[in-house]
Write a structure and sequence with these properties.
This protein is an alpha/beta fold. It contains 8 helices and 11 strands. Helix 2 links the parallel strand 2 and strand 3. The radius of gyration is 19 Å and the shape is globular.
Length: 275
């Protein structure tokens, strides 16, 4: 029996990126049967016409306001679950997928304990290409730390503490057990949070480096420092949610000193190179 798969793209002022992502998804191994939902956190009549005309059959959701990553995607997840989807792909609009993505990722769900599967993500750091893989939380600082390699040491699936949700395939059963994304995180940390909740419920998270997607990061912020304010609030929520009592002290102090330092540093570089 074939499985019903829905892909959710969250758009925020990235019409061209979202269109490229949708086109790439339709060219994939299961693209002909794929259900597509575009949640627009920056909706307009022009956007609605553009996406529904260019991609007939797509479900276009005009968000009542910018609800952030978790809140925006939750709108699409609810509809996908109501429509009896078996698996839901959450994908950023600036991610481009290869043709063979769904068939290899779906194989990991033969283990009924697997709830989340993610590919490796190729991205740039200081003009060098890296493979973004799984991550672990440094609990002394409540700091998520990703594994990034310039060369893959293996393409075997890896059981993980968390994976990034720039591109991730999640089973409907996992959503039923864990619930939706925590929309109290406007942006950042929501993927780590959801993975930890998944682990708590005995579900496995898999990073499958046999599949690689490209993440050409596009920013919605006019200045890079703008995202620090959001990340800071999310970090504080993460600490408050997952640590208790005196466990919070060092992580709180770390966050309180880290973000002002980054703000000063990034501001200096922004004005230095944008005069």
């Amino acid at each position: 029996m074939s499985k019903k798969i829905t892909a959710i793209i969250l758009n925020y002022r990235h019409q061209k990126d979202s269109a490229k992502c949708l086109a790439a998804l339709k060219r994939t191994d299961l693209g002909h049967d794929l259900n597509l939902i575009l949640v627009d956190n920056s909706p307009s009549e022009a956007n609605s016409r553009y996406f529904t005309q260019k991609f007939p059959g797509i479900t276009y959701i005009a968000s009542p306001k910018n609800l952030g990553f978790a809140g925006g995607n939750n709108q699409g997840i609810k509809i996908a679950l109501e429509n009896k989807s078996d698996y839901i792909l959450i994908i950023n609009p600036d991610v481009i997928v290869p043709e063979k993505i769904f068939v290899p990722l779906l194989k990991n769900f033969s283990d009924k304990k697997v709830g989340i599967v993610a590919p490796a993500i190729i991205h740039k750091q200081k003009d060098a290409l890296f493979y973004g893989l799984e991550g672990k939380v440094n609990w002394k600082l409540a700091k998520p730390e990703h594994r990034n390699l310039q060369t893959l040491d293996s393409i075997k699936p890896v059981i993980s503490e968390f994976v990034t949700f720039a591109c991730v395939l999640i089973s409907a059963e996992n959503f039923k057990k864990v619930g939706l994304l925590d929309d109290k995180y406007f942006m950042y940390f929501e993927d780590v949070d959801y993975c930890l909740s998944t682990n708590q419920r005995g579900q496995k998270i898999i990073l499958d480096p046999s599949v690689c997607v490209s993440h050409n990061t596009s920013s919605s912020f006019s200045k890079p420092t703008d995202k620090l304010k959001i990340s800071f609030r999310s970090h504080l929520r993460f600490i408050s949610k997952w640590l208790h009592g005196c466990q919070k002290l060092i992580p709180f102090l770390y966050a309180i000193f880290l973000y002002p330092y980054l703000y000063v540093l990034w501001t200096y570089h922004f004005y230095k190179y944008n005069r």
